Here is the input.
Amino acid sequence: MNTRRDFLKQAGIATTALSLPWSVVANAQSLLPRRAIPGTDETLPVIGLGTGGVFFEGDVEASRVLMEILREHGGSYMDCLYGARNVVAQVVGDLNAQDDFFIGSYVMGDTDEKSRADIAQLLELSGKDSLDLIHAWPEFAVPNWDLMRRWKDDGLARYIGVSRHVTSAYEDIMNLMATDTVDIIQVNYSALETDAADRVLPMAMDKGIAVNINRPFLNGEYFSLVKGHELPEWAADFDCESWAQFSLKYILSHPAVNCAITETSSPKHAVDNIGGGLGRMPDESERKRIRAHLEGLSG
Ligand SMILES: NC(=O)c1ccc[n+]([C@@H]2O[C@H](COP(=O)([O-])OP(=O)(O)OC[C@H]3O[C@@H](n4cnc5c(N)ncnc54)[C@H](OP(=O)(O)O)[C@@H]3O)[C@@H](O)[C@H]2O)c1
Here is the structure.
């Protein structure tokens, strides 16, 4: 009898695929689907990687492993914060993989001069001609939007955007979106943090602005909530085999969403999270069921 491992070997699927949902692997669907950045002919894979522990610690080798896993499954989006940006840029440069990774960096200088110097350093390390995305928290983006637009005009970044993980930032984010000059936003959204679905996500769809999602696991709190509970059997109906995928599939089945940014220091978790982007996504009634189920667990 053919085992799962035999199947993977015959199909030439890498060993990391061993932890992907079996129904998905059996259909040889191990590459992440991609969604269009509105108004362009460019697409982004639906799962991205935030820069957690190992990146912040400057562990280039461990970071490279995580980035290779993402790339192996067709992923490319790296959300790069603080010093972790240099680690990501270095790995991209070392792998000579400028076209394989989409670097979403944050503004880190507080002046035009410092920011340009910071961007120049990332370009030098990564070997890229321009960053793919520069975004900023509203605190910087609102007063400095003209500056960010100039960086884009000068070719320092292909896209510009605004990013935050709290509801209190939505008003500023929407005011910037109203200028029709924002390419990509990043906000928090999941079955247990649904505020963005009220106005921000519909407005992004209406304006043709790409949306990346942060806090898919409430920065880890989600796993404390589901710990000790069995995944409901009906999750298999939408190719879901883990609690991580349960959350990711809820997020990705919102029509405004391009990509969910997952943070992990664990290669095993990185593969699990990629599974959240594969296979069938929940429909509207399944989405309601996911939400009710999680609300039930959170009391
Ligand atoms: N722009 C902003 O203002 C902003 C704010 C917050 C976040 N972000 C971005 O969004 C990214 C993600 O959001 P987040 O930082 O809130 O983290 P998150 O992805 O919601 O949660 C990360 C936590 O979940 C755990 N985890 C991940 N995958 C798992 C899995 N499959 N099974 C079990 N545990 C798992 C991780 O632990 P392990 O390391 O053990 O896997 C870590 O403790 C960040 O990295 C950042 O890029 C942006």
Remarks:
- Residues 50-53, 79, 81, 163-165, 186, 214-220, 223, 244, 261-266, 269, 272-273 surround NAP (CB under 6 Å).
- The chain has one domain: 20-298.
- Residues 1-18 have pLDDT under 50 and may be disordered.
- Residues 20-298 form a domain with the TIM Barrel fold (CATH 3.20.20.100).
